[in-house]
Every structure is written in C-alpha cells, then in structure tokens.
Design a protein that fits this description.
Its main location: endoplasmic reticulum. The protein is 40% helix and 18% strand. The protein is α/β, with parallel strands linked by helices. It folds into three domains: 255 residues, Aminopeptidase (3-Layer(aba) Sandwich); 162 residues, 3-Layer(bba) Sandwich (Glucose Oxidase, domain 1), CATH 3.50.30.30; 130 residues. The strands form three sheets. It has a seven-stranded mixed sheet with strand order 3-2-8-4-5-6-7, with helices on both faces. The protein has a six-stranded mixed sheet with strand order 1-9-11-10-12-15.
Length: 579
C-alpha cells in the first residue's frame, strides 16, 4: 500500500546525524569481550539519554564463551586459527590423525544436520562415517557451525578443522545450545575442540590428511557467567499501550563489527529517536532492545529477555522485528528477506514502498539470528537486512556469508567503517521504521494467516509426495481446510475481536511450524524443517526396515499435535466471528 501522509511524517524525520555518530564511535570499539560489551552498552545509553529518551538497563548474568587463542600445528608448521565460541578449551593441545571429509559447497554455511545436504552424497551411511572419523581430527571445507560440530562429535571425531572459503578466517560459534544453558541443555555443550583456518592453509592441511598425517589443535577460551547490560527503550502508545512491537538487534560484535552490527544498533537508535519525538502519534507501544551475548553466548542476551519477560511477551507482544546488518555497502537488494509467511506481505510491502524498484524475495528464516521467540510464538520478520545483488556478489567473486550485506568482511577484522554506506543505511532505517509503524498504528493487525495455510498445504503435499505412499496426511489436510474456511469469515468480525484472534493464532501456529520443544523452552540451534512433527513422512522411503514402525509412531504423534493445534486455532477464529 502507498505510504500514507501520517507515515511520511515519520519517515521525513529520519536523519543520519545520530546513527552515523554511533557507527563511527563503534568503529573504534571492540565489542566481544564482556567488559568491552558493557562499555558499548554505556555508549548506547548515553546517546539515548542525550536525546531525552528514557532507557531501562537490565544486567543479567549470562553464559559466554569468549575465544582467546587457537592454532593448528602439523608437519612442523604452526598455522594461524580462530576458535568459534563454545569450542572445547584445549590450551595444552589435542593431537590425533587427520581425516578429510568432502563437503557440499552449497552447504558451507548451512545449519542443517542432514548428511546428504552437508556432504552431497560423499557419505552414504552413518556407520560408514563413524568408521572413517572415529578417533580422528576431521578437516573439511566450510564453517565450524553448531550442526556440523554436533555431528562430528556424535560420530566419534575428536576435533574439527573448518577450512574457510577465502584468505580470511571468520569468527563463529559451534554450540547447539540456544542462549544460556539449563540442566537439559548442558549435555549438548561441545566436547571437542573446533578451529577455523583460512583456505590456503586449509588446502595444505587437507593434503596432509590425505597423506595420512596428524595434527595438534590448541584452543584457549574464557568461559563463565558474566553480567552483561541490556538497554531497553519503551515508547508508549496512546490508545493501547500494553500491546507492543519489539524491535531488536545485537550490539556485541566480533572485533569492531561495523556492518555486523553497528549499523543495526544505529538504526535502532534513530528509530527510537524518531518514535520518541513523535510518540503522541503512536497507537500501540514499541520496545527497542539491544542484546549482548549474540556472538559469544549463542543469543544469550535475547534468550534471557525472552525468559525473564515471557509472560508479557506472550500476552502483549504483537511481533518481533530483528535488525541485523542493515546499511552495508553495495547492499541494494532484498532478495534474501527473512520473514514468517504470515508476516511476509508486511515486510515486502514496507520495502517496496520505500524502494519501489527493489528486488524482493521473502524466505523462511533459519534457526539463527536472535530469533529467540519462536517457542512463545511471535510473528516475526527481518533478520539480515539488505544484501548485495547476486550478480554483483558473483562479479566480485564473493562466497556466501551470513551478514554484512554479503560483504566477506563478515565476522573478520575487516568489518570496519568502509563496510557501512550512508545512503543504504538511510534507506534501511526507513524500511524498518515503516514496518514497525504498520503494526503499531494498524487498525487491523496486518498478519495473513491464510497465507500460512497455503504454506501448510504446500508443506504437507511435499511430505506426502516424498513418502511415496507410505504416509497418510489426510487428517492434517482436513485440519488446514477447516482453519482456512474459518479465516475466510474473520474479516466480518469486529476489529477488536479480529485483532485478539490474529494475535492468539501466532501462539498456536508459529510453534507448530518452527519448533519441536515445548513453549517457553528453546530449540537447539540447527535447522528445523517446516512442520517438524510431520517431517518424518518424507524420510520413510529411505529408512531401514527396523525403523519403519517407530517412524510411523513418530508421525502419528506429530500429526496428532498438528491437528489438535489447527483445531484450537479454528475454534479461536470461530469465537471471534461469533463475537
């Protein structure tokens, strides 16, 4: 829809002065060690207060793993390396034979645990790979991510060397634990050392592996529970102040992290400034939060907030909007816009109205970023922001990375001031502001649950086809049809009743589509397939005979969960229509 006169007044108030000041300040500040992160929070707070914006600062203790040093020694040569956060500390080194695994290049930054996706058919069975890697240090191309690390550990590998695609080494994380661990999570803490090396060194090490050589991995980490500051601004609405939109992003970074995520921090600062100045024109509230613990705590800051304010989020939060890596150089495309299906039209519409000729494609968010709210069930959109056009990325010879607008400075020492672009930042700030406004000031909440029903139908059809006749998903299809029919009448309900129903639908439908764990828990940090309770249907033709009946039991239980959720959603819509 076109930008309204009221919306334009907000957009016209956006300036580069305050946000660019924060970008340049953070360009001179390391923000990954706990004490430096807290200093950065103080900077954010001071800049908010300079604009007269009230800010609340929480200071929880969260669990962090901070890389200090790493190296690989092999063939008498010491190679530079970086350990991802949460790698097992082995300051004295661990020595073992090397073994090379061939990775699928398309899965270099994947969070999947699917063997075929990760290894492209080079491994045909789990037993085969266990025999190959047991007791050895695995070396392979890619990033030392959580899914891969957990698999290598399960297979008996005693270490992992990830060979990054270029001449730089990227920081990262390797734990599947989401946020600070609870007792249930602790067994999943990585039990092997993991390091990343650059491509030239990695090629030499892989040659050594093929020749039957061995290597020593050394990792030195600072681990523990650290007090970390979480600044939160609340801009109150004038009509329904209890209901709010949550805009958020991380302020800790690797090194000075300009594109990831000083530009995001600056975007949120400017939106806070504009909304506070024009708060009398807001119907609902907006909360803006800056997270620590993203890089070294696997989203520990946002996870703490989710846990500490779970009931308020459940009852009152209308949507979460993640702000990561906006305003980077050359990032003029929006073909990798993350959004849940019910939020996709809202996200794409805000982009299109600010950038009419933009290339836009919305995609399902991975189990990554600060999406720490899925188990509560919040409508969600944005994660990484604008990105480089694909043709330009290929022209520059850049490989895929997960931020910085596709600049390969991501998670390296090179993510410095030249990665930021004032023009792109101005555009992205307006997109974020407009999308937040269109929730806060909407008469009817702009979430399209019929589109989600379309997604469910497509997912179910895909699983049923992949099952080759082994799965009967007709109860699931009937349940979707029932919800779709009820939603078709929701527009006739009074606006207040309609909004209440749309709000509550997310608490039912988001967890069923994105999580396996219970509400208010946190799923592990690896890819969850759509409608995970039904996903086993697609695996049936490939499973051994001994696993067929247990898989059918799993499918029956998953389908029961799905059908019950859809029926509950249908009843909720029917109640609104009858109001």
């Amino acid at each position: 829809m076109p930008i309204s006169t009221e919306e334009q007044r907000f957009l016209d108030a956006v300036s580069l002065d305050a946000p660019w000041d924060l970008v340049t300040t953070f360009a001179g500040m390391h923000r990954w060690r706990p004490e430096d992160v807290n200093k950065a929070a103080d900077v954010i707070v001071a800049k908010l207060q300079r604009h007269g914006i009230p800010v609340e600062v929480h200071e929880p203790e969260i669990c962090l793993s901070v890389p200090l040093d790493a190296a690989v020694t092999a063939g008498g040569v010491r190679y530079r390396a970086k350990p991802p956060s949460s790698a097992l500390p082995v300051p004295g080194g661990r020595t073992a034979p090397l073994v090379k695994l061939n990775a699928n290049p398309k899965a270099l930054r994947s969070y999947t645990r699917d063997i075929a996706t990760l290894f492209g058919g080079s491994i045909t069975s789990v037993e085969e790979v266990k025999r190959k890697v047991g007791g050895k240090i695995v070396i392979m191309q890619g990033f030392g991510n959580p899914a891969l690390t957990s698999l290598i550990e399960e297979w008996g590998g005693v270490g992992l060397i990830a060979v990054n695609p270029g001449i730089d080494i990227h920081w990262g994380t390797c734990t599947t634990i989401w946020g600070s661990p609870d007792l249930h999570d602790l067994p999943r803490k990585p039990k092997i050392p993991v390091v990343a090396v650059n491509n030239p060194d990695g090629m030499k090490l892989m040659e050594l592996a093929e020749a039957g050589g061995e290597a020593t991995i050394m990792t030195d980490m600072q681990e523990g529970w650290f007090p970390q500051k979480i600044p939160v601004v609340t801009i109150p609405g004038t009509e329904d102040p209890e209901k709010f939109v949550l805009l958020h992003g991380h302020y800790d970074s690797w090194e000075v992290g300009v594109g990831d995520n000083a530009t995001g921090d600056a975007t949120m600062l400017e939106i806070a400034r504009v909304l506070w100045a024009k708060r009398g024109e807001l119907k609902r509230s907006v909360k803006i939060a800056w997270w620590p613990g993203h890089s070294t705590g696997r989203y520990a800051g946002s996870t703490w907030f989710t846990d500490a304010f779970a009931q308020d989020l459940d009852e009152n939060c209308l949507a979460q909007v993640n702000c990561d890596s906006p305003g980077c150089r050359w990032a003029t495309s929006y073909h990798q816009t993350r959004a849940f299906t019910e939020s996709a039209a809202l996200a794409a519409g805000a982009i299109r109205d600010v950038v009419p000729d933009a290339e836009i494609k919305t995609i399902r968010p991975p189990q990554a970023g600060d999406y720490s709210f899925n188990n509560i069930g919040l409508p969600s959109f944005f994660m990484l922001s604008s990105t480089m056009p694909e043709a330009l990325r290929k022209e520059k010879g850049y490989y895929d990375v997960s931020g910085c607008g596709a600049n390969i400075a991501w998670h390296t020492e090179n993510d410095t001031l030249e990665i930021a672009d004032q023009g792109v930042l101005m555009t992205d700030m307006k997109i974020y502001l407009l999308s937040v406004l269109r929730i806060a000031n909407a008469e009817a909440l702009p979430f399209d649950w019929i589109a989600t029903c379309d997604e469910f139908d497509a997912t179910i059809a895909g699983y049923e086809k992949a099952s080759q006749g082994a799965a009967d998903l007709s109860p699931a299809k009937v349940a979707v049809a029932g919800l779709r029919e009820a939603l078709g009448r929701l527009g006739a309900a009074p606006v207040a009743a309609r909004n209440a129903a749309v709000h509550e639908l997310s608490r039912i439908l988001v967890p069923i589509n994105y999580t396996r764990e219970a509400r208010f828990a946190h799923d592990p940090a690896y890819t969850v397939p759509p409608l995970p309770g039904l996903a086993v249907a697609a695996e049936l033709p490939q499973l051994d005979a001994a696993l067929q009946k247990p898989a059918q039991v799993e499918l029956m239980r998953g389908q029961n969960r799905f059908v019950a959720a859809l029926r509950a959603a249908t009843r909720r819509v029917q109640q609104a229509v009858a109001a």
